[in-house]
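Q: What would this chain look like folded?
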Amino acid sequence: MFTNLFIHYFTYTPFARLFAIACLARPDTFAGMWTESDDRYWIEAEARIEARLVDLEGRGFVLESSSFKQGWTDDLRIRVRPALAEGLERARAALPAGHNFKLVSGWRSWAVQQKCAEQALAKLRAAHPEWPEERLFERRREMAPLARIVPGFDSHRYGGEVDLTVVDATGQALDMGVPFSYVTGPEAALLWYELKPELLPAEVPFRDHRRMLMRAMSAGHFEPYLAEWWHWGMRRDCGAG
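A: My prediction, written as structure tokens:
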């Protein structure tokens, strides 16, 4: 018994540790409540967070929902948590004059997440017919996990991430080298052109455009998903608002 308690104590978050101690002291008081170690906690969190999401419409961004465009939903909105919307506005203020963000994805319902995962796997199969199943599924997990439970608020499933690019004053997207959801090669990695030993003249703008994106997103307190230049989430120390 004491061994199990010891293991649980050191695997809980600090809040959950206090919660666990309280449950041990008065188990009747907390019967039926859940912690972050329970699947039910995250399933119930979906409804709580969805009710607090804000629509990015009216904030001056360029919006083009990829989920709507793919026919996965009839909802045109791109919604995120309030703190992320505020972060995007800070990031946009750090862009050069006349530039803006074009957003294609924010919060994803479980139904939409399943569609994303199916599409990712289909794209990977088409681009890499030589890959074994294990590698295909591992890469799919990195791109769009087929998982109802995502134990972290900094994810699309909980409105804590966005997919976006930068557009100029005419609304034209800056060329980042490869498009959204690129799966053919490694060029989708955010730092690909930054770390490449020798850039071709045509690749210099790709590096510079990504630098612009990185500077702006850093000003908004975002963290990158390094495997995909378009994929950004709020820093974990910026709260869950």
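The mean pLDDT is 84.
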